[in-house]
Amino acid sequence: MQFDIQNTESSALYKLLTGTVIPRPIGWISTIDNNGINNLAPFSFFNVVSEDPPHVMFSTVRTGNKNKDTLNNILDNKQFVVNLVTEEVVEQMNTTSQSVESDIDEFELANVTPIDSTYIKPKRVKESLVHFECEMVYHYFIENHQNGGACIIIGKIITMHIDDSILMENHRINLDTYKPVARLAGSNYSKLGEIFSIKRG
């Protein structure tokens, strides 16, 4: 079946995209506003886009032409932390997906522990095993939208914090102890499942 973009409702496009582009890593983004209030929210339109130098990307939807707190905070101070999601914190991550007032601290809402970053103001999630401290280098508002579109954020990684428990020799990551969680469609998530290898030619 073919779906022409101009003739397909946005709700259908969302279901088709999030149901086929899977699994997606989750960027659990922490920011801080100009009043010092912490913000924490998950984004599955997220990935690493470069290692030379290291950069990440995520996008945040603008339902009803309204910015999320995450976007407003990053546009104000150009800083954010990517906390990566594992099986142990998936429930807390889900709690922070709620839409709440901007004066609500999602660290408190989800009962996770804020800890200081080394170079930037936004806090890190102590319970997360991986944190990337980032500075925004570029943002782009998607054009020709119907309901608000989205804004893409590209951030330069300033420093990485990786828990010793998941590190192996030669900078490899122990997936048995890391246990990352990925986003599917609707209310579904996935664990790693079976892992197989194919050597490059």
UniProtKB/TrEMBL annotation:
It comes from the Bacteria. InterPro entries: Flavin_Rdtase-like_dom, Split_barrel_FMN-bd. Gene3D superfamilies: Electron Transport, Fmn-binding Protein, Chain A. The keyword Flavoprotein applies. Its cofactor is FMN. Keywords: Flavoprotein, FMN. Belongs to the flavoredoxin family. This is Flavin reductase family protein.
